[in-house]
Amino acid sequence: MNMLELEQVWQQLSKTVALSPIHNRKEYDRMVLLADHLSEAIGSSKRHCLLNLFEIVCELIRSYERDHFPLDNPSPREILKFLMDQHDLRQSDLPEIGNQSVVSQILSGARELNLRQIKALSRRFGVSPSIFILETSKNQKAGTKVSKRK
Fold it and tell me: Which CATH number is correct for 76-142, 1.10.575.10, 1.10.260.40, 2.40.50.690, 3.40.1000.20?
């Protein structure tokens, strides 16, 4: 590997794109804008010459977000509400999990999703079933709320 050549290429790239770890919100916004432009240029191509650069930029963004925008663990009901909102759905639009009354009980927290409903929602929204499973203790996962006995 010719380090002199690498240094020259890096300096040239740095004049075009400020590719570096993200340290503040301004750099984050700039990197998100770069990712948007790269995404538009790449489109759906799986062999575009900028694809590796796009992946590097996305990893820098993910790293910054992981440190600066921690996510709470949303409940299955909050996730369902979010997906319904994103897909512009009403309670009556989810017959695969039950009638409007059942959906209302789930959304209000009076009722938990069962395994059949979780599978149906996973298929409908194209997401992993695990997002609808509430972890209630370190090694327990279930479709219904499970609490430790005292």
Answer: 1.10.260.40
